[in-house]
Amino acid sequence: xxxxxxxxxxALDTEHAAVYSYGVIAAYANNDRARLVxxxxxxxxxxxxxxxxxxxxxxxxxxxxxxxYPPPFTVDDPIPAARLAVAAETDCAAAWRAVAxxxxxxxxxxxxxxxxxxxxxxxxxxxxxLGTNPATVPFPGRV
Length: 143
Hints:
By secondary structure, the chain is mostly helical.
């Protein structure tokens, strides 16, 4: 398995976790955030599916998702739900940054940069909702 393939598989698993997390987020987010949660969840589902397709196109069968992705902390009201969204977006940013670093083609690098940009924007949106200042970080995905 190439480093690009391994990075893509990790990004796929992170997208699976984000989709799962957004299910938890939806259960506890403020009602006025329902549209935002649905939009961001749909974006992760689309990225998950596109990543699985990209792996298949490269001759690799994607790993199956885990049965569950437990949150790293208790989520029982809107504030922890928003923090879980930040955590999910942060994890996705790190995964997509790794894909960009290990990309073997311009096409894969472009996909990774697009995904990294999208997840950084979603993270900033959640950070702003939480009142974090600044809402962004200089280098998204840097661990």
